[in-house]
Amino acid sequence: MRSSESAEGQSPADRSVLRLDEPSVVSLIRNARPHWPDMLDLCGALLRQRRASDARILADELSARHPEAAEPFMLRAAIAHDEGEWTLGIAMLQRAFDTSPWHPEATGLLARRWWQDGRVPELVALARRAVAENPAKHVPLIGYIGFDASIEMAEFELAEHFLRVLDGKARQLERRNHLAREARNWAASEAPHEPAGRDGRLRRRIDALVAEGDPDAIRPLLRRSLMEPKPGARDLIAIRTAAGRLRMTLTERWALRQMRDHHPGYPGQIMILTDFLSQLGAHREASRLYDDLSQASAQQADMLLRSATYMASAGGMALDRLEEAAAALEPKLADPGVASLARRFIAQSHARPVRRDVSIGSVSALPAPALAAGDRRPRVAICMSGQLRGFRNAWPQTRKALAGEDVTVFVSTWADAGSGLGQRLSVDRRLPVGLMPRLAGEHMDSALFARSFPGLSTLLTGRRSYEREELQAYFGTPHVEIEDEEDFNRRHEHRTGLYWLNKLNQAKMFYMIHQAHEQMRRFEEAEGRRFDVVIRLRCDNGISELAREDLLYAASEPVCLVPSSTTKLHDRSAMMSRQVSSSYASVYPNLNRHGDARYFEGATGQFAEYLIGGHLIDQGVAVGLFKGTKTTSLLSDQPSLQEFGEILTAEIQGREDLDTFESAVVVATIETMAATRSIEAMSRLWQAVPAGATTARARLDRSFAAKVMASGAPAGG
């Protein structure tokens, strides 16, 4: 893929921004009636170019000229979010809504941010106001977020209002079935009845219900507990953990919100809150959790200082504050090397500074940072490595996103393409689209499928291999290397320090990253010139959208850009300068040389995300987040729902009963078929359910799929 010298591949907003000179921008800003979509697009383009200070100039100017408008506050919200200030961004959206109630964009953004932040009472209050004032107009602005929040607080009539407005004539049977089930469970449940001030007793009750395996009894208990005045810190941790296991995302976030409100300095929660905020990109806000570390125990000190260093590497914590944290925690550290690691990062960051903000002091729309060689497009190396599972779904998206760029592809892989089950042998990524969310985590074990459904097991765990010429043609590159995985295992089986969970999988991942990088390095030597940017990808992880601003920034700054960075580093994809890529790819040589993951002072001994993160910190590499580039989830070669259903139907025919796992798979498959309008296949599977399978039949009778089956009509939505 070779580039032209045009601006093709940019969004319309980017092209307009790059054409504007300062007078025309000022003219737009100072218009008595500005076109607000243009202003929002201009602000977004400045943020993608990492010009937050210039975006702030724009917001200040517009706010001064139009104090009655919501849009300047929306600009400030976008800037705050971009700079890692999550709570400030929400406050700005609240100001936008208060300034112009029911502003469509401000209302939708505020509802989504409240959902992400676990602000359930605020969402329910907004939902009530929407229904009271103008349901036909206001309810759609909030959407199903209002429905979900209403169920969380047992406002079932309010949830019904939302369904009536949102569904119209095409009633969504599954949501109505969900609403009826949650109302029944709530009516059958009891309040926690735990004495005030007895933090921890609720945790034991939750643990007992989890052990009994009755999610319908656990859900209302968790929600009732969050509606109690000021739950205890240990109980909130138990609520969050149980909600996570049950995939009750909003309940889990509500528990975190309560922890932040009522127990902000609780040491055991700092790591959890750091992860939560940094997943949202709020590294600067997360770093303030470390302002007072006096209560930290010796057991927590290592983790706290390590995560503070991650916040600093992502630009959220100033280096002098990291030095203060290291000094405060050093006497308590079990591993003094963590303090040394933090100080090495500080020293190398001073020696290799990274510009986080490349503003020019005005909103004139100049291009993003230019390459030293002029305004040519950067030379990009795509280094793909690891098992090929999912590559046929991932690579087409990457190829489309990179169209028009100057790209050379290097692939290093194993002869065995892999099953896609992952380290924990879970089938979740191999299940047909739509089925996985309907199955509990404990039902993803491949061993259960092998025991109960041999045909499905073969379908989900099948493996194959590819020839080099086949892959060269598919990826459109001669740079493909295939190695024997068993040979690697034989060469390294005696090196116990490279094992993780009794396998060499993580060591093999870093080996393949290094091999792809070596291919690229040899190519550079032969060509006599270096690449500007290196993009590292797993074969099952694709790029769905490429922001050229990210490419230019990575080409001009010694930085590693990733989709997310928390208290560990995203290890599926990365975009980095050529200088940084040598550091990124050097994990395996160090592992091989030392024979252990603890090859640098302060290493955790854990692999993958922890090891690559600690390694880059040890090398003094700054981390940044993508501003516009988007990546896919981990993809696999998933069978169709029809093929899965046909095999499942054949396997249960003639059986007398189904156990708990088998019932769960059958019910989840039937519900997925009902939701996707696969009526004939659903009918065949339903009829194959054994008469003696009372658990499965009882669940189906209560399911929305029963109404679909009775009517012969597809489920709405």
UniProtKB/TrEMBL annotation:
<dbReference type="InterPro" id="IPR011990">
    <property type="entry name" value="TPR-like_helical_dom_sf"/>
</dbReference>
<protein>
    <recommendedName>
        <fullName>Tetratricopeptide repeat protein</fullName>
    </recommendedName>
</protein>
